[in-house]
Amino acid sequence: MRMRYRHVTYRYIEGSQQLERHYRQLLQDALRQSQQALLHHSKTWRPLADILESVDMMTVKVELAGMQEEDIEVTLYEDALVISGDRRDDHEGYENLSYHEAQIRYGPFRVEVFLSYPIERDAVMARYENGFLWVDLPKLPETKPERVHIQRSGTKE
User: Fold this and answer.
1) How many other C-beta atoms are found inside a 10 Å radius of the C-beta of residue 117?
2) How many helices, marked H, and strands, marked E, lie in the chain?
3) Residue 148 has what pLDDT?
4) For position 29, what pLDDT does the model report?
5) Which of 37, 63, 138, 153 has the smallest number of Cβ neighbours within 10 A?
6) Cβ neighbours of residue 49 closer than 8 Å, sequence gap 6 or more
7) DSSP 93
């Protein structure tokens, strides 16, 4: 990764320093209020997910950086896979902490993947490594239609 830095010097015109201080104070107050709202806002969010499918398997990959394996719940229903949990901010408990940016989502999350074909339930595997949850869902082999013999009326075989 390449990073560039710029050094900028601001020049103040007479009287503008007081305006600049007032502006910075307003900005800090707005950031602090939005941070409080974000921390107390507990709506469910959806982490980024990739859903891959081949002829015999579907794989769901979910980005859950910073989570512990035991804090992630994977539930397989008849026609859906649901991945849920609650990612906690590890800065909770610090007093007078202000964010300069808040882009990482915290709180309860939920990913729902609807399944349009039967899954081989005993072979489903989930693994969590390097901040990603992988769930492999093998498809049941297709059953070929069987021909049904029609009996003639009046005769028993």
Assistant:
1) 11
2) 1, 7
3) 86
4) 72
5) 153
6) 60, 61, 62, 63, 111, 113
7) T
Measure the CA dihedral 72/76/82/88, to 10°: -10
The answer to whether the CB of 103 falls within 8 A of the CB of 34 is no
Contact predicate 83/74, CB 8 Å: yes
What residues pair up with 86 in beta bridges, in sequence order? 108
How does pLDDT run across 47-56, given as a tens digit for each residue? 999 999 999 9
- Of the candidates 51, 32, 33, 20, the one whose C-alpha atom is nearest the C-alpha of residue 114 is 51
Is the distance from CB of 99 to CB of 39 less than 8 angstroms?
Answer: no
pLDDT in tens, 24-60: 777 777 766 665 555 555 589 999 999 999 999 999 9
> Would you put residue 38 in left (φ > 0), alpha (ψ -120 to 50) or beta?
alpha
Q: Locate 43 and state its tokens.
A: 């709506």
